[in-house]
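Rotation project, supervised by the postdoc (A.L.). Task for the rotation student: set up a whole-complex structure prediction and record inputs and outputs verbatim in this book. Inputs entered:
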Amino acid sequence: MTVAQYGAAAHTRPYLGKIGIRGRERLINAASYLLLLIAIAIVFFPLAWMLTVSVRPNIEVMRMPPEWLPQVFTLEGYRKIFASPRYLVVFANTMVVSLVVTALSLILGAMAAYALARFKFAGQRAVLMFLITTQMFPLVLLCIPYFRIFIALGLYDTRTSLIVVYLTFTLPFCILMLRSYFINIPRDIEEAAMVDGCSRVGAIFRTLVPMSYPAFIGAGLYTFLLAWNEFLFAVVLIESWENRVLTMAIYSLMAEFVTDWNTMMAFSVLASLPLVMAFIFLQKFMVQGMTAGALTS
Amino acid sequence: MLLTLKRKYREEFLAASFLWPSLTILVALLIYPLIDVVRLSFHDSNLQREVWVGFGNYIALANDPLFWRAFWQTVVFTFFSVVLHLVIGLGLALLLNMNLDPAFRTVARGLLIVPWLLAPTVAGMIWVLMLQPFGVLNGLLASLGIIDTNFTISWLGDPSTALGSVTAMNVWRAFPFFMVMLLAGLQAIPKQLYEAAEIDGASLFRQFWHITLPQLRGVITTIVLLDSIWTFRAFDPVYVMTGGGPAHGSEVLATAIYFDGFQKLKFGYASAEAVVMFIVLFIVSAIYVRRTMSNQQ
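Outputs recorded:
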């Protein structure tokens, strides 16, 4: 209706010469391609700069005017990282912490999501509201009590403490996302399996879990990303180098070797690589996870 | 007797058996620390001893120009980040929603998402490198003739440009979230609306104003609220890029709380700041929670 009001606009449309409607569409399309390519070039500039600095000697980095491409190609930064157990342990730590957090969040999250999607119970609304609110918590507020609690428990400066506290933001996300997926799967399918003699848990594992694999992959990837990239809790709860994770190690490197940009950028490339690789192969699920997570939660 | 009770509350029993692990963890990790912070905010504490000071911390905070400066800078940082995320995200989503080759669209969307995969720490470090006095941004500006090579700008070392530089990094890293969400929103708009408008001869701008924007209103409100909350509580970009400096020129609430607590060891005061921050976030969250809860019904 609102559109019809503007029917008169047809006559005021600017005269576009001989190219006509078809030509106008093609022109707009060509402009879209061009603008997108420009946008990609701008967005990729910092990433390209990271890559080129990671393969050139440090003297070249701060040259004015800048050399756009490496004049001397070197893999010294990467060699330093792979030669040093001190750096490698950081990658191993991050991988272990992120994988354990992802597994725990998916298992516990799927259980809770199932309860919220399939049963009607008193307090359900309150539980949902609590879960949504937890995603808004200022994490820096939690740092002070966590610091005190983990010292008291003797868990300060352990990877376990990181795994536990990362659940504060990954678990609500997984619950909400899996719940929104489970709700759309008809419960008749499980009930049919239960009539055929499956237990409830058996029915869940034979029908619901395999049917919602996209949600598991999407939520799992996003959880992994959150855990891999987390920084604040790692700064507060980890002290010694052997328990450090990537984000924190990068920050300490910056303080330690102020001018060794070559090694730092090599480190950054390696730290981003697992996420970028996972994303390339699983873009579809990741995008689904992003949209579903925020729109339904 | 027990059996009838069990039958009556059967759903509650089943739900509870699936829910309790997650709920126990989240209450222990979120509710208990929240109470602990509120308690601590009424004490003078360096973690060794605690002295009750009543509202002392809150009165000191109200009269602390540094706190208000951090508060105001957090608002500025949040406002510009969110507005630019929206403008850039919407522009790119509109471009991606044009009549493009599907393969090109998938690749372009994938490439434009990459900054969002990086840890804020990694992204921050790339920008620290680029924004050095002899970094590539000054080099770029010099080769375009905008600045003189002898008078390069220390983007992060100057109080007037530090917060803007951190905002720029944050815009670059997080706009893809908006782009992906808005693209999903655009793809959900029924094509018939545009066809009708086309027949009525509505111009592209009119179509955007009277169809696209009203249809996207729900998505835009949701992501603006979410992003405001996430940016308001952000710690990593500022801590990594400037440490809140120079001379508190880019201090935000999250970093101020961290420094007051973990460097000055004024844990009571930092807790009071965190409580104020929590209240502000809670008000915004309440709007968000009300919206999402009414969508769920």
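Student's summary: Residues 64-265 of chain B form a domain with the MetI-like fold fold (CATH 1.10.3720.10).
Supervisor addendum: The mean pLDDT of chain B is 90.
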